[in-house]
Amino acid sequence: METLKAIAQLIGTIVIAGGFLSIFIYQIFKYLGAKWLDSKFEARLQALKHSHDKELEALRYKIAGMLDRTAKLHQREFEVLPEAWTKLYTTYWNAIQLISPLQERPDFQRMTALELDEFIEKWDIPDSQKQGFRKAQDKGLFYREKIDFIRLNKIEHMARDIGQYIGTSGIFISPAIRTEIEDIIQRIWKALIEFRTNIECPHASQAHDSIGALYKSNEKMESIKKIVYERLWSTEIEGKPQSP
């Protein structure tokens, strides 16, 4: 009996010790498991933070690039647009003065011989044409033909210049403004061609449709002037590029 009792006490002791050991082992695994989860969570958090920082930096770089490009485009536009307007305005009004029926011309019949000689000497034409003018019966007609061709050639050169300028630098101008400018240039050319045809063929039927259309373009010129003014003085910054 004593032996059985001793055996029972030993088993009880082992069971109790095993219980404490299980609790001890559980606590160790619980602690280690928590540390492992914390380390995994921290690593994941750092990876997400790094990815977020990279995306944020890429976004900052993209926005900075867009603003820089927009600023450069606006700067270029502010250089091109005033020059384009100046060329258009000068060409337009020279063309209007050329085709106008109200022209101020010298009255050669009232000039003295000395006044006529002084006029001829100051006239910027070749000497051969000056000689032809001296011999001309109708000096007024000779003058009109020569001076009209001289002025016409000059304005055609101006029209080519503004056309080439818009062709090369027009990409920096707002499409809406560029379209209006190109329309005026087309009207100028049509009027100049019609004017040249009329003076080269004085006995043919005179056409005035294109000349009349250019005369009626003053309102459009004022509209372009207003748009250009508003464009240059606008404080709005566009981030979205416009298609040509």
Keywords:
0% strand, 7 helices, rod-shaped, mainly alpha, disordered C terminus, 244 residues
Provide structural commentary.
With 244 residues, this protein is an all-alpha fold. It has a domain at 74-233. Helices cover 81% and strands 0% of the residues. The chain has helices at 2-99, 113-122, 127-135, 139-169, 175-200, 209-215, 218-233. It is rod-shaped, with a radius of gyration of 45 Å.
Q: Compute the average pLDDT.
A: 78
Which sheet architecture does the biggest sheet show? none
How many strands?
0
Low-confidence stretches: 237-244
Helical element count?
Answer: 7
Q: Bin the strand percentage.
A: under 5%
Helical percentage: over 70%
Distance between the termini: 110 Å
Apparent shape? rod-shaped
The ordered string of helix (H) and strand (E) elements is: HHHHHHH
Q: What structural class do you assign from the helix and strand content?
A: mainly alpha
Measured on Cα atoms, how large is the radius of gyration? 45 Å
